[in-house]
Amino acid sequence: MAHWSKKRNVLIDAAVIVLVAAIIGVVWWIGHRPATESVPVVPQYTGQALVDEVQKKYALNDYLGAINLIRGQKTINERKTQLVLAVAYSNSNQHAKAVEIFDQLEKAKPLSEGDAALAAEVAERDKQYRKAVDYFKKAKERADTEAVDQIALYDYKIAELEKKL
Amino acid sequence: MKLCRRCNPLLRMTLLGLGLVGLFMSIGLAQPAKVSADACSINGRDCWFGYFFNGYDGGPGIRRNNVLTAPALLNVGNGTQLVNDLWAKLGGCPGGGLWNQNDQNATGAAFIILTMLGRAPGTPKNVACQEFNAWRDLVFMYENANLTNFNILHNSGGINTRSTRVDVAYYPNNVTSASIVFYNPDNPAEILYAIKKDCGNPVGRVQPLRKSFNLQAEIVPLVNGAAPSGPAEAGDAISFTFRIYNSSRLVSDPVNCSASGANVPGYTTSGPGGTPIGTGCPRTFPGLQHTVVATQNIASAPANTTLCRSLSVTPSTQSGGTSNTQVCIQVANKPYLTVYGGDVVAGGGVESSPGACTNNAGASIVSWNKGGAGANGYAGSGTQFGAYAPATIREFATAQSSPLGGAVKPTGLSFANTATNVATGDYGGGFGTIPCVRDYYSQKPDTTIAAGANINVSSLTTGDHFADNASGTVLSGGGNINPDERIRLFVNGDLFINTNITYPNNVSYNSLPLFQVVVRGNIYVGSGVQQLDGIYIAQANAGVKGLIYTCAFDATPPFDAPTISAGAFYSGCTNKLTVNGSFVARSIQFLRTRGTLKQSTSDEPRGLTNNSAEEFNYGPGFWITQPDITNSSDGRVDNYDAITSLPPVL
Predict the structure, then answer these.
(1) What pTM, to 2 d.p., does this model score?
(2) Chain B residues touching residue A153 (CB < 8 angstroms)
(3) Which residues of B touch A61 (CB under 8 A)?
(4) pLDDT digit string (tens) for A50-84?
């Protein structure tokens, strides 16, 4: 019986320790979990219609409204919508956030020539000149070799940005 | 079909139908190029076809150039830089044309300028040089109106442009990049024109920058520095501000505007153009602004006048039209009446039996009072004592000239004063217990002294007189009432009083006279009459008439009620009417126009020094000589044995 009693006590102690540890863990997690941004409830648009609505808000200098509209789309996690969001961040002078999105998209799948040039433009606005040069180089690599004007443009931009490095 | 030689007809038809459907679907699927062409045609050319020469640029399989070579417009950050950049690309337009018709940048610059101006496809490149200044002015106009953004990430909306160096064509392409955009002045949420900065490509639907203005002529009148809430008074300071509002964001073209003014006698709501007033037009009007083109100040407005001012602007919009406006301020006297020594009661019905009558629940006392603002608060119409009305007492003060510690004007003796709104002119009313009015006409004794149709009051003697003239009776000639005379005049029909009727200036208390007129009809007081002493009663006849008009002109029976025509009252009723006694009537029309509210002062003393149009002075002399005769068997005036006066318990 004494042996059983001792074993029982050990089991109880272990259970209590586990329970307390679990409670502490839950409390810590609640206190340290990443804050979730509230997603606004907005009208839903698809494709070009979303871009057009966003540009109307730019015209009225309603950049915050544009960002909220994009973030409230059910397609927010899609690549095209993320690109629209990056542009909105940049137009609202939140260039760093925009660059972050471009970086994530580039990492997931290489950006097209035009989007790489757009990422370079945004990086330049954020004074991340090295990154801007890198993106312009990627745009140049991905450009049609016959697009001589465009390649000349990228060369011009790269040369201008490298002066700032 | 070989497999189906032995098919039944239905199966053959089915297969044939399916074949045809497939054929049509194939045709439909073979239309993407057509769809693309439609996408560009909103800009006046199908996709791949050049703006200048309408040549096919090779289509989607051929690589073409940017509209402008690097760095294109990357270094453009404002309107001036854009203008200078394109001017340089045109080569400065030597000889009024492009420096080189086949140069890529010159062609691109011409394309941008011409499409921003809305010139149709096919316009010669050199026109860009000829209209460069107009284009430049438009760019600056839009920039000044904050209708531009020279560095925004913008999406092309599916249409881009490309160059063959000698021409520029639209083509389907969706791209987002740093752009220069111009917004619609009439709808700033709409983009009219956008240019991709890194290549100089106009993108999207290119709409011309257009001038736009929308002008509205406005005249702002002020009366004593405030917006008028009704007619102005004589002596008021009136100003007119003539201004034009441009509701567009863009400055207008130089336009004509004209202002004028006319002072029209009497009352009107519109007037002629009148005398021109300088405006400084033709001139331009900035967007979203009021621009004052003239002002006019009138230090003291003339009475009985309507001041009309007009303003027009032509053209009022880019496409023409005229905006006109006219403001007329009527300048009128606001006459007021004052009552001393007695109360004012409205709504009492004529009694049908002692103490029984049907009151008029809608009866009100309505006049003009200055209200509480300023040093002369609650000056104007009012009574020294109380006022009773079952409906409203509007701008008629009570307790005027009240002694210190007494009832407080303007509502202290208003019955009732439990629900007033002095700020809006509601000085009381809603009193439920209005005393009945005696049926004075029924007191006419059986035996009376016959009076004619034209009565000289001075010749009347003590006693009850009776005039029965269906068309009307006139009091004219003398009007002196002598001491000890106690005259009652009963009139069946209308009465026109065309003479002053006065008691002696000084009389002993035991020689007080009485002049009481009881009319079953209307009483018209001639415009020249200035003093009436006595009691004047107008009773309705079977519910009709029973009115007293304090100013009338037509002394020839049958009398016409005065009507409002241009200036009739103002010019004809300026004599002050002083009534030493009282009026009793179904309704009293106070029509005298002497003085105006503006001239009134607080607690004005009675007499000729005040500017009231009508003044009533009541006193013991009028009831001492008017004992209750209803119980008198012969209808003669009796004498009091004693009189006790106690203050009311309120």
Answers:
(1) 0.66
(2) 66, 70-72, 198-199
(3) none
(4) 999 999 999 999 999 999 999 999 999 999 999 99
